[in-house]
């Protein structure tokens, strides 16, 4: 991997970490700044329809943050790929959250897609879905 490839992968990794930091801090300003300023952005929250367009995507984060007391992520199986000006991160999110006095624990398979802009790597897609089974047992 050349220096520019390494720098691109590090930049995408920083953007991915910033996404989870904004999420854990329930910071709508930071979350908004991470998303590409484009009406083609998309988000699929667990159990949700596909949200298309910046207004709907940011609105969904505002609603989640408003109804969440706290949330913490432990990421596993993290992989980051970069191809030109596009990058994507795949991982398992181990989530601990509380909302309305209820403690929630869940595992989600997630994908975050980014595009490189003059302002750095910006999110164009977040998709998370529940992990209900594994295709391969540990060790395969």
TrEMBL record:
<dbReference type="Pfam" id="PF13474">
    <property type="entry name" value="SnoaL_3"/>
</dbReference>
<dbReference type="InterPro" id="IPR032710">
    <property type="entry name" value="NTF2-like_dom_sf"/>
</dbReference>
<feature type="domain" description="SnoaL-like">
    <location>
        <begin position="15"/>
        <end position="130"/>
    </location>
</feature>
<dbReference type="InterPro" id="IPR037401">
    <property type="entry name" value="SnoaL-like"/>
</dbReference>
<protein>
    <submittedName>
        <fullName>SnoaL-like domain protein</fullName>
    </submittedName>
</protein>
